[in-house]
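Example (one chain per record):
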Amino acid sequence: MQRTAVVTGAGSGLGRVIGRALLEDGWAVALAGRRPEPLAGTAEGFADALTVPTDVADEESVAALFRAAVGAWGRVDLLVNNAGTFGPTGTPDEIEVADWRAAVDTNLTGSFLCARAAFAVMREQDPQGGRIVNNGSISAHVPRPGSAAYTATKHAITGLTRSISLDGRPFGIACGQIDIGNAATDMTAGIATGARQADGSVRPEPTFDARHVADAVRYMANLPLDANVQFLTITATTMPFIGRG
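Predicted structure:
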């Protein structure tokens, strides 16, 4: 049986690396993102790639994404909830409420809408079940300075992961979370040149090849549904995360 996946934020960064790794493994993958051109770049060379321009913060756009995936392949076995934005930076009093809400809409509500749609498909399909992998980030554990919106949404992803994991049990739906620290992508390029630390200094931080994130997701995705990686943390070995910086 053809294994099928939906990957959000698939036009660039981790989403592109994860999407292409799954395609290389023989999955049929619906690649979701806001812009058609980057999605086409991710899909290039793969017959089993479906590109679906999607705004994860919009309920109807997400519904259309899953209609497209089910229409193409009849089922969804895996959702990788990867779309996200750093959002506004600054101390809480410096963050505009509209910018806070925009970050919540993409990072949290977007993940919920995609998980909600995937859950509905997985619950009703035959054979029943599937897997949801949420991208939490190191910020699901600890904040960077001036990151209230991003950090709050990523802490919330952990609660979403736990709730889906529990609610999915009767239907064969597994849910796990991958927390990533300093994978080298365009989104994190600034970290390698200088990132603000808790003591106020700005120092470069080590990064690691994003391909290792894809390998971790592939491991999670390839497990049978009676086994689950609940939480997996992958970081650059010497990044200032463990200890006090």
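Caption: Residues 142 and 241 are 8 Å apart (CA to CA).
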